[in-house]
Amino acid sequence: MKIFYPILAGANLPDRLIASLGALFGISIAALICGYIVHGDFSSALLVAPMGASAVLLFAVPASPLAQPWPIIGGNTLSAVIGLAVGHLVPNPVLAVGIAVGLSIVTMSLTRSLHPPGGAMALGSALGGKAVADWGLLFPLFPVALNALLLVAVGIAWHRLGKRNYPHRAVQPAPNPHLTADPPPAARLGFTADDIDSVLSSMHETFDIDRDDLETLLGRIEQRALQRAHPTLSCGEIMSRDVISADAAMPVSEAIALMAAHRLHHIPVTSDGRLIGVADLAELKEGETLAAHLAKPETGRADDPAFRHLPALLEGSHSVMIVDEGGAMLGILTQTDMLAALSRLVPIAAPAAATRPPVAA
Q1: What DSSP designation does 199 have?
Q2: What pLDDT, on the 0 to 100 scale, is given for residue 356?
Q3: Is this model's pTM higher than 0.85 or not?
Q4: 318 within 8 A of 337, measured Cβ to Cβ
């Protein structure tokens, strides 16, 4: 029964149902609009068959590099041009379809528009048929390019409505918070970008995932493994409880003095005992209200696993505000608190035994 298991990582039934609805609207709308543009009648559908395969990629795996707008538009259009040209130049249809598909793969690879349905587009264009005969040299533009453009437009609108990341952009790692050339602290240990490139090169395999997505995925797996290794360590166990905070009504001058007295670079701001934001010393200016410079804080609960908040602390947040259900401050989890906890959990290597000179007989 394993052959029937989903082969796509992260695949689940709700996402597939949403993908099915998206494909329904995408294909139908593209077919109707193309029919209206060309024939002036919404009852006429004008669509080439490989667009069905493009719709599978666009709506079911929108994060795939093969499903991005340029591969869909460029891959289909360029393959149609190649298939049309080969079909005219090579009289033997068996040889023509092979040449057309092979050339389409090379062309799509060189133009960064690799798209599997492009192979079908090249094959169909080389074989000809009524649609190819009707449109002649215009076939790559009408209906192929027009189909692809409309399908992508519907796809972008559909994914925007569902708040999905399309066209897909890999999550970029947080820059160094001090704006220096050094990589951020989280990127200084563990695997590097060069390690990923070296392993990918040595495997001689091609994976359907963006290179930057792969780096982000591996980094988050490392962090999740750390959480799993220490599931019982809670925020409440390692957080600072005697929190210095400022009231929202406090003048900026008093807040600056308070932060200077306790050597703080940022301070939680409360109103009626509830956390409403964080003020950064570098942003505060005399004569303005404290509430004018509030940033949204990272928050957590006392019973949260401590390492759940490690990504936030590594990616630029100096601290996580620990609050109760009503938003009242219970404590603060800082980068220093996390570092202290890690130092107790990481085993200390025993020093190497000192070598002694041999004793003379």
Answers
A1: H
A2: 52
A3: no
A4: no
